Amino acid sequence: MLGKQTNLAEQKEKAGQLIIVIYEKDNTIRSSIPTNKSIPSEEVIRRSGLCPRDGSNVFLKNSRGIIQTSEALIKPGSTVFIGSDSIIEHCIIDNITWKSKDGNIGTGKLADGTIAHVPNVEKGEKCWIVRHTERKSFRDPKLIHAECHKFNLGTKAYNVGDIVRARPSPDNSNSLLFDPHTELWSINLKISLPEFTDEVEISQLFKGLLWSVKITHVNRKNNRYKGRLLTSLTYNPKLSKKRRRKK
């Protein structure tokens, strides 16, 4: 009897020193990582042996389905899920291509070669992004440009002062913001126009475009945010044509 109790205790202790990694698309595929201390999720991914060989993005999710950052520590005894089927992508900012009074826009290359355009970034910054729109390069049709915005993968995806992208409703007052925790466009974003401007003129000038919006209020309990249009960071083909004509 004592021997059985000892074996059971040893099994429990051994289980507590393992991190179980399960392939999200097929739960029968899994691996165990022995460790007696917490290790970063990027190390868990590397040691799991479950990374795809085609170089596609890989994500680690906890038991609640929340994506973990590369620095997040995974405790011994945890069960996590690895997968690559996600619209969330990783980007390193190579250049700052636009500066204005409201902030800047930087670019970085995504895993498939697409050039991501991301507002409110710094050169060399590593960030998680989601794509909004894509277009072919005028100079090289094989090159794709994507308008994106960044967010945090921690408990607070967005904070006051963050700059996101949004395509507003026909009345230019509301939009749905991407929630990285659920991977759904489910956060209600109420958008206001800049102060001391002609609202009718601005509404017509930027109607139907993808807006850059600065978050001014966050209500995480009700998933309702507020933001303000940043005209200097919103690409407007009409204004671009006027500038080219002047030149």
Molecular structure report:
The strands form four sheets. This protein has a six-stranded mixed sheet with strand order 7-11-12-10-9-8, with no helix packed on it. It has a five-stranded mixed sheet with strand order 13-16-17-15-14, with no helix packed on it. A four-stranded mixed sheet has the order 2-1-6-4. The chain is 16% helix and 40% strand. The protein folds into two domains: 82 residues, Phosphatidylinositol 3-kinase Catalytic Subunit, Chain A, domain 1 (Ubiquitin-like (UB roll), Roll); 158 residues, no CATH class. It is an alpha+beta fold and 247 residues long. The protein contains four helices and 17 strands.
